[in-house]
Design brief:
The chain is mainly alpha-helical and 539 residues long. It contains 23 helices and five strands.
């Protein structure tokens, strides 16, 4: 009974402002403690792309001058800020990510207060922390979705601030909200759904067409500012044609690569991992979703939250790739659903039990949720080192080896030398601090069944030959570029005409069915002496 009394007293304490602040601080401190061990984990390839582009930006190059990308340059720009503040390292990016996620947790807390009392707002912050840490969302890696939700939550907070006031929102606040949503899009294009949500939400929050049109215009103007800045930068350096091709033409083709049947399989696989790690959290979210649907017509707040969930899900589902880390864009809406679900469950418990018993049942439920979350991810949080983490999560991709490979490249080339990586591992360029001989950081466009593969193959090979790399890195896999035999033939001709094998890293990868992308070896070829360059090879 003494334990029950202490728990009840604690719950009474957190109803006070100082108690809630203390709980929020505990959430942030626990988050830091659990994330800290991941700060030195080597980059995976997406992180390597952002880091390399950021590195080139700090050398004075604009987006698309140094590298082609399907993504807008917002995340690379954030990485550049981290490099300025903390130095060019893996730690700098992951420490910067930690700060961004802490900002998102705080923004989530204040945003949720628009819909709940502060106790349930704490629930949303705690649940978001669980998603941002989880193995199932690749929470340790600095993917652009983390940056998206920070700016989305800031924009939403500005939009809904004082929304219950009789007076309309101030113009500057709406403009700043739009700016935040525009920055979210600059991080990842999928976030444009949140701009649509903001315009629709302002429609419901305001009365009179004049105020509604003004609000939509200000949000749109604010959102266009960072995007206009990017557009002007690529026009300034003459890369507007390349940017348009990659961000519009190729992006459109890329979105149609995956068929409906394949998309369903991807969704099932991705959902299975998330369900395993956060099963009880998602069960409560489903209850919350049912509550929101029931209240949709009669309750303005429920309507806004449900539409926020639609925007989050559409961002997650864009292109139907359903990659693990895409779920992070849906996570803030799921957190609000969890709070609605928890509120509903508590409303069922309270009338049937005394306050102390009700508190005890809530504590037991929370303990079960925490136990499930940490039990299924025990190794991930408490025993895996960085190498084990990468091998467990990415299987046979060998991301932990590339710092060693890059160190060898740096030792055996000059700073002014160009290097070509044949194998979609842009982190190698960042680690070695060497310029890429081609703007193509990935081979995927050359291997995908998409309309521009022939054109991009020609462009890639032409750039590599013109770039005159001192060293060629080839990542060997079982498929060995079989999706594009023309490219495979060119590569062998190019190696035989200009290079000799200098060093090889061979791996005893686990042979898993369907794992055609597993790395068998990393081969380093050095340019043959007295062969300064090579003539254009026919394809």
């Amino acid at each position: 009974m003494k334990i029950l009394e202490r728990i009840y007293t604690f719950f009474r304490t957190i109803q006070r402002p100082t108690g809630r602040t203390l709980v929020l601080l505990v959430i942030l401190v626990v988050f830091i403690g659990l994330r800290w061990k991941f700060l030195q984990v080597p980059f995976e390839r997406d992180e390597g792309e952002y880091a390399y582009i950021a590195q080139r930006m700090l050398s004075g190059e604009y987006p698309f001058q140094s590298a082609y990308s399907l993504k807008l340059p917002g995340t690379a720009m954030m990485n550049a800020l981290f490099f300025i503040a903390f130095g060019q390292s893996v730690f700098a990016v992951h420490f910067g990510l930690l700060l961004v996620d802490l900002g998102a947790l705080i923004a989530m807390y204040f945003f949720a207060q628009r819909f709940f009392d502060k106790s349930y707002a704490l629930v949303t912050s705690a649940v978001l922390a669980a998603f941002l840490l989880s193995r199932s969302t690749l929470g340790f890696a600095a993917h652009n979705e983390h940056f998206v939700i920070l700016f989305v939550l800031l924009g939403a907070l500005l939009l809904l601030r004082h929304s219950t006031d009789a007076s309309p929102p101030r113009s500057m606040r709406l403009l700043l909200a739009g700016l935040c949503f525009g920055l979210a899009v600059l991080m990842k294009q999928h976030a444009y759904w949140f701009i649509l949500w903001a315009i629709i939400a302002s429609y419901f929050l305001l009365t009179g067409w004049k105020q509604r049109v003004k609000s939509a215009a200000l949000i749109s103007i604010g959102a266009s500012i960072p995007l206009a800045g990017f557009a002007l930068s690529v026009i300034h350096v003459g890369e507007n044609s390349a940017a348009y091709f990659w961000l519009v033409d190729y992006a459109r083709s890329y979105l149609h690569i995956l068929k409906w049947r394949e998309a369903i399989v991807v969704l099932i696989v991705s959902s299975r991992v998330i369900l395993l790690d956060t099963f009880f959290i998602l069960c409560i979210a489903v209850i919350g979703l049912a509550v929101l649907v029931r209240k949709f017509r009669s309750n303005l707040q429920a309507r806004i939250v449900l539409l926020f969930g639609v925007a989050g899900f559409c961002s997650f589902a864009q292109g139907f790739y359903f990659r693990d880390h895409y779920f992070i864009m849906f996570a803030p809406a799921v957190c609000l659903m969890v709070a609605y679900g928890a509120q509903y469950v508590v409303s069922l418990i309270r009338p049937r039990h005394t306050p102390r018993v009700s508190v005890a049942l809530v504590v037991i439920g929370a303990s079960i949720i925490l136990a499930q979350y940490f039990t299924v991810q025990h190794g991930y949080f408490f025993s895996w080192d960085g190498r084990t983490l990468l091998h467990q999560v990415y299987r046979n991709q060998q991301f932990d080896v590339y710092p060693q490979v890059a160190a060898y490249i740096a030792e055996n080339t000059r700073v002014s030398d160009a290097v070509a990586v044949i194998g979609s591992e842009p982190q190698t360029y960042f680690y070695s601090r060497r310029r890429a001989a081609t703007k193509y950081l990935y081979l995927y466009p050359l291997l995908e069944p998409q309309a521009f593969r022939g054109r991009m193959t020609q462009e890639f090979t032409r750039e590599v030959e013109a770039g005159n790399p001192t060293l060629l890195l080839v990542v060997r896999t079982p498929s060995q570029f079989s999706e594009n035999p023309i490219f495979a033939s060119w590569l062998e001709q190019y190696i035989n005409s200009s290079f000799t094998l200098d060093k090889q890293y061979v791996f005893s990868s686990i042979n898993e069915p369907g794992d055609s992308g597993r790395v068998l070896s990393i081969d380093l070829y050095k340019r043959t002496p007295n062969v300064p360059g090579s003539k254009r090879l026919s394809l």
